[in-house]
């Protein structure tokens, strides 16, 4: 029997002053490790990372300033790549991990140019979601970060069946910290898998 796919389009308006900041998504409502969702915000689109993204992503993962914000907690790698081969090897690892149902990596595409400027990673454990956000330093700005977080916050709780999401942000990363607070995240004083400098956002269903 052919698998039934439910497609839906949702526009979310977030407050009177953000009427032009709507989030629109067109996704196939399937389990995320069977069919990966794609989401479009006002400035960016998230879609599953592909091997063809390697050249653009190398500009992010070789960015010295951006590297300072990469979260390598509990990882075997620091995500510092200087060659195309290194970037392609890492993408293959991400794709293999997706096939094993371990986590999802989405590439962040600029809507105007379709250039890829970074990635978002997400997975869930025991009702808690873990978010990584890697982005080129030139795009580490409030409106861009909040556009990404708006997608995460409106859809990833349901997609990963979690009630809270944690993400790392160092004290000195003022722009990201401000974007997280404006998006409803709060500093989390407890260690996350043995590491500190995290923010957390809860939802009640």
Rg value: 16 Å
Strand order in space, largest sheet = 1-2-3-4-5-6-7-8-10-9
Helix fraction bin: 25-40%
- Secondary structure class reads alpha+beta
Distance between the termini: 33 Å
Count all strands and give the number.
Answer: 10
Number of helices: 5
Report the biggest beta sheet as strand number plus sense, adding barrel if it closes. 10 strands, mixed
Q: Helices and strands in order, then pairings?
A:
Elements: E1 7-12, E2 23-28, E3 39-40, E4 44-48, H1 54-61, H2 64-67, H3 84-99, E5 104-110, E6 116-125, E7 128-135, H4 142-160, E8 164-168, H5 174-182, E9 186-188, E10 198-202
Parallel strand pairs: 7-8
Antiparallel strand pairs: 1-2, 2-3, 3-4, 4-5, 5-6, 6-7, 8-10, 9-10
Helix pairs in contact: 1-3, 4-5
Labels describing this entry:
205 residues; alpha+beta; ten-stranded mixed β-sheet; 10 strands; 27% helix; globular; disordered N terminus
Characterization of this structure:
The protein is built from 5 helices and 10 strands; from the N terminus they run ββββαααβββαβαββ. By secondary structure, the protein is α+β, with helices and mostly antiparallel strands. Strands 1-2-3-4-5-6-7-8-10-9 form a 10-stranded mixed β-sheet, with helices on both faces. α1 (54-61) crosses α3 (84-99). The longest helix is centred in the C-terminal third of the chain and has 19 residues, at 142-160. The chain starts with 6 loop residues before the first strand and ends with a strand. 35% of the residues are buried. The model is unreliable at 1-30 (pLDDT under 50).
Provide a short characterization of the protein structure:
It contains 5 helices and 10 strands; from the N terminus they run ββββαααβββαβαββ. With 205 residues, the protein is α+β, with helices and mostly antiparallel strands. Helix 1 (54-61) packs across helix 3 and helix 4 crosses helix 5 (174-182).
